Amino acid sequence: MAHAVISCLHANLAAVEAVLSDIEQLGIDRITCLGDLVGYGPQPNEVVELIRARSIPTCQGCWDEDIIEGLNACECSYPSQLAERRGQQAHHWTAAQLSEENKEFLASLPFSLRRDRLLFVHGSPNSQHEYLLPDMDAFAALERVEAAEADTLFCGHTHRPYVRDLCEGSIRLRVRRSAASAPAGGKPLKERLAQAPPPTPTEQEVALPVRRIVNAGSVGEPRHGGTNATYVIHDEQTDLVEIREVPYDVERTCQAILATGLPPLFAWRLRHGFEYAERADDPGHVCER
Questions:
Q1: Close Cβ partners of 26 (under 8 Å, ≥ 6 residues apart)
Q2: Which residue among 20, 50, 92, 137 sits deepest, i.e. has the most Cβ atoms within 10 Å of its Cβ?
Q3: What does pLDDT average to over the chain?
């Protein structure tokens, strides 16, 4: 049975509608959402209400958490101080727009969802704010999946889709045996150990289990170099994963961003499919609250 995994909708109603239509045309009726229903985009209430109306199982994203907990919950990094100020503006605007009912829905979302050996999170099993990038150290990536007791970990947050198989790995262990062969007798233990032959180190190689990380990318704010919305389809029988790109009416969303008074740069970035538009302002800046 195939199921669809979507993430990072970011209040972009046109993109969400296009992706849900694509899923429906494929005949898939099981969908899991990895959060970030709001933030940056101009239709937070409409997107939340659409997910609620479809009863799509959803875990809480970092923007969903921050809207409920406030900006002090943020563990984000911004490429510049200007980018951080724009993020704050989007946060305050979104919080003011959302209905109390929709805020309660965001607050009720679980940190993760699990189905057998499949785990669904927004950022990582550790935090909604942790980025599992495709070039992350292989051992650290494997640790995230294995510690969560999953075979496949579905995540979002980076806005860049990928499938990473963690296989053909091993750990080489160097073991020193204890000095159990120390001579017996009435001598003190310290003296007996000193007379014992030095322990002989042995090496052992342990094969690591095959695990997988699947990033669903972003429906509402793609950052993979194009403007198409992205999501993934997982066939549970064959274990195959397909990354899908869906075109949508980008201009409709851009015009709505401008009409609401959100930073015009959000529309410009969305229209061009750029990951960052303000990296040159202060590339060393890290958001700290």
A1: 2, 4, 233
A2: 20
A3: 85
